[in-house]
Amino acid sequence: MAFLPRAILLLLSAVVCIQLSGARGEAIDRCWCLNSLNRYVPKEEIEEFSIFPRRSKCEKVEIILTLKPVNNSPEGIQRCLSPETKQGINLQTCWKNKNINNSPTLKISSCFQI
Questions:
Q1: Beta strands in 35-91 (DSSP E)
Q2: Which residues, in sequence order, are bridge partners of residue 87?
Q3: Are strands 62-67 and 106-107 parallel, antiparallel or unpaired?
Q4: Residue 55 C-beta-side C-alpha neighbours within 13 Å
Q5: Domain Chemokine interleukin-8-like, which positions (predicted)?
Q6: What CATH topology corresponds to 43-110?
């Protein structure tokens, strides 16, 4: 009879360990932007953008632009913008001032008049 409580305890310990190992969220830590644009992107071409701060496995700030669809495409194309460009700095400032709800994306129209 002493075997059953030990087996249940061992099983519960294994479940807890599995849950804790999956709770780290490592997928978000990697860098998404391998190459970033160093040129100005006209704001009329941008639908929305996201900014990801430095993380444990990505040493740089990343700005991902979602461009407006072209040529009857159902989705916009995503491009990375260098955070060191003037436009990148302006978008980071807007993000800090306007993204009070911690939304994953921000419409470009909330930053600039288009």
A1: 46-52, 62-67, 78-81
A2: none
A3: unpaired
A4: 15
A5: 30-87
A6: OB fold (Dihydrolipoamide Acetyltransferase, E2P) (2.40.50)
Residues 18, 68: Cα–Cα separation, whole Å = 41
Residue-wise pLDDT for 38-94, tens only, equals: 999 999 999 999 999 998 889 999 999 999 998 877 888 999 999 999 999 999 999
Q: CA-CA distance, 5 to 25, in Å (whole number)? A: 32
3-state SS assignment for residue 86: helix
CA distance 108 to 106: 6
Q: Is 65 helix (H, G, I), strand (E, B) or coil?
A: strand
First to last CA, the chain: 74
Question: Could you say which DSSP state residue 58 is in?
Answer: B
Q: Which two tokens stand for residue 82?
A: 């260098």
φ, ψ for residue 66, nearest 5 deg = -105, 115
The structural domains of the chain, with segments of one domain joined by +, span 43-110
Express each pLDDT in 1-13 by its tens digit: 566 666 555 555 5
